[in-house]
Write a structure and sequence with these properties.
Helix content is about 55%, strand content about 5%. The protein is built from 4 helices and 2 strands, in the order αβααβα.
Length: about 120
């Protein structure tokens, strides 16, 4: 069996498969999770400045690390409840400085259609 040495080609074995990897490789499980969390947080919070963007990205990384820590508990001796809690709290501290997005008119319209609006 020959193994292709050119990355991202047919037959190449991805080193990050079934592993968490790191943030430096955009294809790793950890990096993809952080990107997904970032997208989810962008829907909820207003990002106006570069500082807000940096805060959001950092919070997403901490949340991804917390999820990794929780999933590797029992197999990795460094993955403890205390480490997961500390990562989650650090992410919350970053998110606390962001402004929550107010409901849009489309959300108000959908609530009125469902009958949730008292007006």
């Amino acid at each position: 069996m020959s193994v292709a040495t050119t990355p991202y080609r047919r037959g190449w074995r991805a080193p990050w498969r079934r592993q968490w990897g790191g943030f430096d490789d955009g294809h790793s499980r950890l990096s993809k999770l952080a990107k997904r969390i970032t997208a989810e947080l962008r829907e909820v919070y207003v990002i106006e400045t570069a500082y807000d963007h940096r805060r959001l990205a950092l919070a997403a990384r901490y949340l991804a690390l917390a999820e990794k820590t929780l999933s590797t508990m029992g197999t990795d001796p460094k993955s403890t409840r205390r480490a997961a809690t500390a990562l989650g709290k650090t992410a919350e501290m970053q998110i606390a400085g962001l402004t929550r997005r107010s409901p849009t008119s489309a959300d108000d319209f959908a609530a009125r259609v469902r009958g949730n609006h008292a007006g």
